[in-house]
Specification:
The protein is α/β, with parallel strands linked by helices. The protein has one domain: Alpha-Beta Complex (Spore Coat Polysaccharide Biosynthesis Protein SpsA, Chain A), CATH 3.90.550.10. It is built from 8 helices and 13 strands. Helix 1 packs across helix 4. The relative contact order is 0.18.
């Protein structure tokens, strides 16, 4: 299995912090976010990695080089146009080839064990992909997911409005007391997923959405396994999150 890490965005919500550094290179506990991710992948036996770069790409590329200093193999592909998550992985298509690949955003921190858990779960069945979820987040800022009795995906709604959530409650899809599963932004796919990404159309928000490709897979009767992330999950989305991580690390 290979890995694809999306690290092309500027991270505008970080303000001045990303004027000189791309967001995935911001330090957490003394080293860049990306270094935590790469170390976790390596611990799960995933050592062939494609980094999708864009903003300040040279900062990432000069830090990691070919990956040998970190015990992995790293190649780079540029995302020239920032037009949504749905096509952000496509520059890695040739590198991935026919292999399965773990896909993660370059600003999501999880325990290293999470990647190993994903590989284990993905290997338990004939799955087209795997989607991770967590609880306790505002699904209106991400995505809400629904699963069957085998914890395989049945429906995904990206950034639902309150009206959509009310409708899901009204039709019995979202039941009081049930877990509200938030899309955690770390996935595994087989190579067929690139075909679905390639034929995406722009969403009403004017972007290509990865979740639309996942929904198309489900609609075509492809099985997407679910996995609840245990322990640490942090979306380093803004300066407040970054500051809280630094405070936590210092023990204040």
């Amino acid at each position: 299995m290979k890995a694809v890490i999306l690290a092309a965005g500027k991270g505008t919500r970080m303000g001045e912090l990303t004027q000189e550094l791309p967001k995935p290179m911001l330090p957490v506990e003394g080293k860049p976010i990306l270094e935590h991710i790469i170390g976790g992948l390596k611990s799960a036996g995933i050592t062939r990695i494609c980094l999708i770069t864009g903003w300040k790409a040279e900062v990432i590329e000069s830090h990691f080089g070919d990956g040998s200093a970190f015990g992995v193999e790293i190649v780079y592909r540029r995302q020239e146009i920032q037009d949504g998550t749905g096509r952000a992985s496509l520059p890695a298509r040739e590198y991935v080839g026919e292999d399965d690949f773990l896909l993660t955003y370059g600003d999501i921190l999880v325990r290293p064990q999470t990647y190993a858990d994903m590989v284990r779960r993905y290997g338990e069945g004939n799955f087209a992909g795997l989607l991770t979820v967590t609880e306790g987040e505002d699904v209106k800022k991400g995505g809400i997911n629904f699963f069957d009795e085998n914890f395989c995906l049945t429906q995904l709604v990206e950034k639902p409005s309150q009206a959509q959530l009310d409708a899901l409650k009204a039709d019995g899809t979202l039941k009081d007391g049930d877990p509200v599963w938030y899309n955690a932004g770390v996935y595994i796919f087989n190579a067929e997923a690139f075909e679905y990404m390639d034929r995406l159309e722009k969403s009403p928000r004017g972007e290509y959405e990865l979740t639309d490709a996942i929904s198309a897979l489900v609609n075509d009767q492809k099985t997407i396994a679910g996995l609840k992330i245990e322990g640490r999950w942090v979306d380093v989305r803004d300066p407040e999150v970054l500051a809280s991580l630094e405070k936590e690390a210092s023990g204040d």
